[in-house]
Specification:
This protein has helices at residues 16-27, 39-51, 66-80, 103-131, 142-146, 152-172, 197-206, 215-226, and strands at residues 7-11, 31-36, 56-60, 85-88, 134-139, 177-184, 237-240. The chain is α/β, with parallel strands linked by helices. The protein is globular and about 45 Å long. The chain has 8 helices and 7 strands. Helices cover 48% and strands 15% of the residues.
Length: 246
């Protein structure tokens, strides 16, 4: 198993990519600590992991609040004694053209998608430095690389995560901590469930693989970066978009 004896903390793990990542990491031998806003969803993920012979705990919370990030780290350390992997997967979108975007729409996305990742990193990085080992994976997006109409807040947050990733890769590499990002393309998640079918069809036609990503496709990218197979990968942004951006 690729993550045997590792402890992974995953944010936004109640559904979508985060849920699939928690299930996959547990299958690969990791002890998993998950967080998100909906208790029922987190309970379901933990129950499924337990039924399959894995170990999982959860702490509901909002990563945009530093105290909530501190609490999940504290609980993870109390239960498992270490944290080897942090997957900053939590994210929201509140789309609007820049001429119509409200301050709440801007702040809401920046606070969760960018500040939330920063909060979790600050909460956990001391643990990893003391261990002299660790992996941090940030969920960026192709929107953060190329931009996207109607997503000035989301694209800005995801671009910020790339800057955060590259800077921390330089700061923390000498401490034994690797920091990388994944930039998914269009993925079937609750975020895309409200997109009209006509738009989804147009998206598929632009992708060389002619399909949207499934959450497990992104989870496998996280798994690679979290594993020892990527032990010399640091500061990278891995695009997982079916070839959309080539």
């Amino acid at each position: 198993m690729r993550l045997e004896n590792k402890v992974a903390m995953i944010t936004g793990a109640g559904s979508g990519i985060g849920r699939e990542t928690a299930l996959l990491f547990a299958k690969e031998g990791a002890k998993v600590a998950i967080t998100g806003r909906t208790v029922e969803k987190l309970e379901e993920v933990c129950r499924k992991i337990d039924e399959n012979g894995g170990e999982a705990i959860f702490k509901s919370g909002d990563v945009s609040l530093r105290e909530d990030a501190d609490e999940i780290v504290k609980k993870t350390m109390n239960e498992f004694g270490r944290i080897d992997i942090l997957v900053n997967n939590a994210g929201i979108n509140k789309d609007a053209l820049v001429t119509k975007m409200t301050k709440d729409q801007w702040n809401g996305v920046i606070e969760v998608d960018l500040t939330g990742a920063f909060n979790c990193i600050q909460a956990v990085v001391g643990v990893m430095i003391n261990q002299e080992s660790g992996v941090i994976i940030n969920a960026s997006s192709i929107s953060g690389i190329y931009g996207n109409i109607g997503q000035v807040n989301y694209a800005s947050a995801k671009a910020g995560l790339i800057g955060l990733t590259k800077t921390l890769a330089k700061e923390l590499g000498k401490k034994g901590v690797r920091v990388n990002a994944v930039a998914p393309g269009f993925t079937i998640t609750p975020m895309t469930s409200k997109v009209p079918e006509k738009i989804l069809t147009m998206m598929k036609e632009k992708i060389p693989l002619h399909r949207l990503a499934e959450p497990i496709d992104i989870a496998y990218a996280y798994l690679y970066l979290a594993s020892d197979e990527a032990r010399y990968v640091n500061g990278a942004v891995l695009s997982v978009d079916g070839g959309l951006t080539i």
